[in-house]
Fold:
Amino acid sequence: MGSPAQRRTTIKDVAEMAGVGVATVSRVLSGGSASAETRERVLDAATKLDYRPSALGRNLRQQRSGGIALLIPDITDSIYARLTDGVLSCARSYREPVTIGVTGDDPEQEADLVGSLLEQSMDRVVAVPSGNGEMWTPAIRAGLDVVFADRRVSGEQRALDEVPAVLADDRAGVRTAVEYLTGLGHRKIGFLARHGQAERVEAFRAALGDLLDEDLIVHARASRDSAYAAAAGLLQRRPDLSAVLAGGNKLGEAAVLAARELDVRIPRDLSLVMFDDVPWAELCSPPLTVIAQPGQDIGYRAAELVMRQGRRPRTVLLPTELIIRGSCGPRR
Amino acid sequence: MGSPAQRRTTIKDVAEMAGVGVATVSRVLSGGSASAETRERVLDAATKLDYRPSALGRNLRQQRSGGIALLIPDITDSIYARLTDGVLSCARSYREPVTIGVTGDDPEQEADLVGSLLEQSMDRVVAVPSGNGEMWTPAIRAGLDVVFADRRVSGEQRALDEVPAVLADDRAGVRTAVEYLTGLGHRKIGFLARHGQAERVEAFRAALGDLLDEDLIVHARASRDSAYAAAAGLLQRRPDLSAVLAGGNKLGEAAVLAARELDVRIPRDLSLVMFDDVPWAELCSPPLTVIAQPGQDIGYRAAELVMRQGRRPRTVLLPTELIIRGSCGPRR
DNA sequence: ACTCCCCATGGAAACGATTCCATCAGAATT
DNA sequence: AATTCTGATGGAATCGTTTCCATGGGGAGT
Structure:
C-alpha cells in the first residue's frame, strides 16, 4: 500500500561493507572456508545490515526451489490433516517451506498439480497418490524426488517401484479387526471401502477366509453422499449383516448415520469397527471401536525420507492399533 | 535416482526453433503484442518442445515469488482445515501455489514464519494472527500484502488497521446463542473461551447484560488438556451453572467429556452450545447445538482479497448460523 | 513525395545468489 | 634458495525470465 518499498539488502551490500568480494560472503554464510578475521567481518556486516539471503537468487542458481511439496486428497479429512501436520513439523526442523495441494482423489487434478510442481522446480514431494500413478513416471525421470504416504500405487512401471512409501500396516490392522469381530462370534462381516483401498480389501478377503462373502464388500467414492449411500445400501440389502468394518472415518460416520436412520442399533444389532481414530470417535454414541493409524507419524517419516539424499528404505510400515470402545458386541 | 537429468527446455530453445528473439517469445507467451504469424510460429514451437516457463527465472526477475502463503494456528483443527480448503480452492482458480505454516497460536513462531516468508519473497499472505500482531507492521511496510482471516489483531498500530480481515460475525453468533439460552430460561451461563477470543468474550458480556457473572468466564489455551482442565474446573467450581457456551470445537469436546466424567447430563443438567459446526456434532450424544461458522468461505474470501490488487474492503463479516440439535433444554 | 508515427522485433541488462577458476601470499618441502 | 603446495580470496560466469531501449519497416497523413 503506497509504501516506498526500499531495495532489499543484497549480498553485494554486505560484501561492500565488509570490504570483501561477494564470493567470500557467500562462502562464509554457507559454511565454506575463510580466515577467522574475514569471517568475523562478514558476519558482523551481515548482522548490522540485517541481511537475509534471497531464496529467489539461490533457487535460480541451483536450479531448484527448496521446500517440500505435499499432495493429499482432502485437507478437511482428519487423517490427512494429521499427516500434513507431521510433514509440517518435520519440514520446520529443516527450515523448509511446505507447499500443499489437494487432489480430491482425482488423478487428473493430481497430474495437473505435478505439472505445476515441475514448473516451480520443486523437486521434493510427499504424495498420497490417487490413480495408478502413471503420471509420476515422467516426473520421477525428470529428477523429482517422491515419497508416497498412506498409500502406494498399484505400480506396474519400474520407476514407481523405486519410490519409497510410508504406510500404516493395513494388513495387520484389518486382520486384527477381523479377528476381533470373528472372536465375538460374527460371521457375516461387511466392508465399506473407498475406491483405491485395494490393499485393505485384499487383506480383508485374506483375513476372512471361508467366511468371505463378496457381496458384503461395497465401494464408495470419497464424498459424503457416496459414503452414506454405500452404507445405507449395504444395511438395507443385507439385514443378515452383523458387523461392519469401515475403511475410513468418513465411511464410519456414514455407517453410524445410516444405522441410526434405519433404526439399526449399535452395538446391539450391528457391530462397527472404523479405520482411523478421530477425536469424535470417543464422543460418539456409542464410542467407536477403531483401528488407529499414526497419521502424524506417517507424515513426519515421509517428510524425513524425502529430505534425505542417500539410500532410503523402499517401504516403511507403521503399526496400527485396535482401540476397543463400545461399538462392538457379541453376535445375537 | 541416477537419471541423466536432461536440461530443461528454456525460452531460448523456443526462440531458436521459432527463429525469433527471446524477447518476442516472452511477449507472445505473456500476452504482449506480436504479429499473428509470429505468434503462431512461437506457440507452435512452444508446443512442440513442451516448453514450460520456469517459475524460478520469472520470480527472480519480478522480485517476487508468486503464490499465497497461509498461516494458521493448527491444521488438525477442523475449522482451520476448512479455512485452508477455501484458500486452496481459490488459489487453484488463479493457478497459484499455496505455502502453509502452522503457528501453534504462538506469536514467536508466527514471527519466525513471517521472517521466512520475507526470505522467500512471498508477498501475499492470508493469516490467522496469534499475538497482538506487532510483528506484522514491519513486514507490511516492506510490501507484504496481508489479509487476516477468522481473527483480527487487537491493533494499536496504524498499519494494522489497514489490513483487510475476513471474519465470522462472532458478535451476532454469540448474541443469538445467548438469546436462545436465556429464552430457555437459563440465567447462569458460562463461557469457555480460548485465549485470544477477546471479541467473543466481549460480545458475550454485552449479550448477557445484567446476567453477567465474570466468574463464569474461563480461559484455556489451545491444547486439549488445557481445554479439558478449564471445562472440568468450571463445572466443578460452579454446580449452579445451567448452560455453557464453548468458544470452539476443542472446547466443546472438552465440555462434553468433562460433563460425562462428572456425571453432569446434557441437556438435562447442563445445556451446551458450541462454536463451530463439525461433522461429529451430529454424531455426538446428544447431538450438539452449534453456532456454525463458514470456515471454507472465510478462507476463500480471504484468498480472493489477497489476490486482488486494488482497493479492498477493510472488513468482511460472514454470517454465522445457530443450528439447533439436542444439547440444550429448558432450565430445571 | 516527404515526414511522421506506430508497431513489431531483437539485443542486452537486470534480478541475487552460487561456484568455477585464476591469482597470490605464505608455508612447507626439496 | 628454488620449488611446490595449500588455503584464502575476488572476478566473472551462470541460472531463465522479463523488460528497457534502439532499430527498422511500412502505412498514413500532409
Q: What stands out?
A: DSSP finds 13 helices and twelve strands in chain B. Chain B touches chain A through 52 residues (CB under 8 Å). Residues 170-293 of chain B form a domain with the Rossmann fold fold (CATH 3.40.50.2300).
